[in-house]
Write a structure and sequence with these properties.
Layout: H1 2-9, E1 25-26, H2 31-37, E2 41-42, E3 45-51, H3 58-71, E4 76-79, H4 87-92, E5 99-102, H5 107-119, E6 124-128, H6 134-147, E7 150-156, E8 168-174, E9 180-187, E10 193-197
Parallel strand pairs: 3-7, 3-8, 4-5, 4-6, 6-7
Antiparallel strand pairs: 1-2, 8-9, 9-10
Helix pairs in contact: 5-6
């Protein structure tokens, strides 16, 4: 019985409060943010990025991650971005050659596309949903775990008080003077924290 329990607890999709997960972390490209996250981004799972307005620096925070995944040959998928991405900015971050842009006609199609790409082995799937249900969030989390990928979901800041199965939730806001403020709202085995990042180079 003890052996079976230890085997179960060793699974990467099982987390015990107070015990850090053993998944490898992916460096964020920002030393202070790495420290706050306990090493870097989770290697897989659902990450929610909450923001007040589109283009407020939410992609800036993720750019080094996407560049790292692309350098490893992993596909990056944008599903229904609110604006057409600016190609020169993406090229400067090193992942445009691994980028696939998908436009669908509805939230239902967007969710299906994101799940399919996650399970197909893409490195990261970025999608924009305004009011996803808890069931939709759970589907994204499970698809990301199954595909050993990252689901990066962008949502309005007003969703901060809603429950979510995401492994990580963060709010990104422009600083009052320079840079970006990243507030960690939910981070497994880590306390809530606020990090100030340098002035964004691309958003």
């Amino acid at each position: 019985m003890k052996t079976a329990l230890n085997t179960l607890l060793a699974r990467p999709d099982i987390w015990r409060g107070g015990f850090p997960r053993q998944d490898a972390a992916v460096a964020t490209g920002h030393a202070d943010l790495d420290a706050a996250l306990g090493g870097g981004w989770p290697a897989r799972g659902l990450i929610e990025v909450l923001h007040e307005t589109h283009g407020g620096g939410e992609l800036t925070v993720l750019a080094p991650l996407l560049g790292t995944l692309a350098a490893a040959g992993r596909q990056i998928v944008f599903v229904d971005p609110p604006f057409l991405p600016y190609a020169p900015a993406l090229a400067s971050q090193g992942f445009i050659n691994q980028l696939l842009l998908v436009q669908t006609g509805s939230d239902t199609d967007s969710l299906w596309t994101a799940e399919t790409c996650l399970r197909a082995g893409c490195g990261a799937v970025l999608c924009w949903l305004d009011r996803p249900t808890h069931r939709a969030l759970r589907r994204l989390q499970l698809a990301a775990e199954d595909g050993e990928a990252l689901a990066l979901l962008f949502r309005p800041l007003r969703a901060a008080g809603l429950p979510s199965p995401a492994v990580l939730r963060l709010a990104v806001q422009p600083g009052h003077e320079t840079g970006l403020i990243v507030n960690l709202l939910k981070c497994r085995s880590r306390p809530a924290a606020s990090v100030c990042l340098p002035d964004p180079a691309f958003a």
